[in-house]
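Record type: monomer structure entry
Structure origin: computed from sequence
Chain ID: A
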Amino acid sequence: MYAIVDINGIQTKVTPDAVLEVAAFDGEPGAKFTFDKVLLVGNGDKISIGQPSIAGASVAVEILEHLRGPKLRIFKFKRRRAYRRRKGHRDEITRIRVTAITA
């Protein structure tokens, strides 16, 4: 069984007991959340598609930890102009475990 769920505006494919890294959201590690914006549920050959979401379907998750992603470096330059700019950032992410998919 799998589902496509909208988590923080990003469509994510989830399966039971999967550990995912998603964009950061509030909550303490160990807290449980449910996402009701389930867009698609697949169970074997049977696929249910919502318009825009499936009524009564939800995905239960547990927060494992909050962490920061890898450092991304952005470097801009223009040749022969002495123009160089260096920037970088690290995204805040949350690691979650999918505990149940109900449809």
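Annotation 1: Strands lie at 2-7, 10-14, 19-23, 32-35, 38-43, 46-49, 58-68, 72-78, 83-89, 92-102.
Annotation 2: The chain has a mean pLDDT of 95.
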